[in-house]
Amino acid sequence: MHVPSTEECIERALPKVEELLRVARGKSFFIAQTHDFPDPDTIASSLGLVWLLREKLGIEGIVGYGGIVGRAENRAMVKVLGIKLKRTTNSDFKNADLLALLDTQPEVGNHSLPKDRMPDIVVDHHFERELEGEKPVYFDVGGDVGTTSTKVTELVRAAGLTPPPEVATALFYGLKSDTRDLARLTRPADVASYLYLFPLMDPALLNEIENPQVPMEYFRILNKAIQRGKIYGHTIVADLGPVYTPDLCAEIADRLLQIEGIKHAVATGWFEDSLFFSLRTRTRNRNLGKIIHGIVAKSGLGGAGGHGQMAGARIPMGDRTPRSRGTLRRKVLGEILTAFGEDPKTSHRMIAAEASESPKNGKRPHGRSRAANA
After folding, report:
1. Per CATH, the architecture of 6-210 is what?
2. The pLDDT value given to residue 286
């Protein structure tokens, strides 16, 4: 792997930062909007862009979001680094004369941007989605990078700025968490940004972020995932039921992917009348973002996004009855399993493997069952 030099990184990003400053020049109030349930990459890249425009053009800006910051590490990141997030309202959007989306795109459906407001700036590392209308003025989407934090770090470097420890730590953690410490979907540009940020970030602050305490409810839901977990071939599926934050679906899917022999993990949970899916895979020849986008977003069921080895979806339930909600969950899950090459009707429970280690009757149970439900 050829890691780009400082000169190469700056040369690639210099036209982008010049265009960004051209778009932003003369504006007075800036909102960098994350997706609704912000993860470290969207928080960090939003913070970095707000800081960059303040330093270069003196524009006041805020990091906005529409849902909740739920995962313990994400809450710790906001608290430890003193990041001021604001739950944005319609009045905020009306007052802003400059608006950006970070780590998401206008018509993905996982953010709270008003439908009649097109962002001026979009920075996202995910694959480009089809837009019904015209593209935003500044549209930096996709490319050979693994995180949006990498894109913003390159803009910062090309702008001739050196981020302070809090901003550097945020960008470093955003990059580190989305690539699983450079082990997942990492590109040369990500390595270059990682090495650039490493001496600038604060290790003590990073340690506080990565090792937070979690509520007791987390372990109750983790136990539920183990009790309800079903294995379809090389795929494990866990129904978490109601969750206190949608981020738990992603966190537990990550955890379940650690099970020996598992190639794909899916966790589902209910939050505020919506059904959430989180998908993870160990295989590098699949693009989970495109899979879930095709199943959920293109069919008009809800919003979906992601990239190679990690993705998620949110399906609003509205007036659906409990029975129709269950039917819809099974339908979507069946399509996901089929995309993974699994038989949606054949499964065995996760805990059956434990039971088979010490059978009471001395016989080894088969642990297989025909299951119509996920």
Report:
1. Alpha-Beta Complex (3.90)
2. 80
